[in-house]
Amino acid sequence: MDDYHRNLERQLQDLRFKVHDSFDNINHPTARLISNELKNAEDAAQGNQNLRSIEDRLKVVQRQLQQSQQLNSQERFINPDHSDQFYHHLENMRMDMRRQPHY
What we know:
It is a single chain. The protein has one domain. Helix 2 (29-46) runs antiparallel to helix 3. The protein has helices spanning 3-22, 29-46, 51-68, 80-98. It is mainly alpha-helical and 103 residues long.
């Protein structure tokens, strides 16, 4: 595994734990989807997979986080402010990935 993928794997693992800790309802289907996609992205980084396929997983997470901001308070599984922070964090990660020579 190259240094970039190793670092990306660590970043994704840290993010996955932070996102999981911010869930109000970890059993919500979308919360499980987000956790699974982040874990799959982490595994893909560990496996030195193509950055585009890792980025695609992050886009799925971003879409789910964006949609979660529209939920009413009874359906909500994550605080909208946290969701927004994670969305922007993922956007920054994706921008960094696209700057890599092997993207």
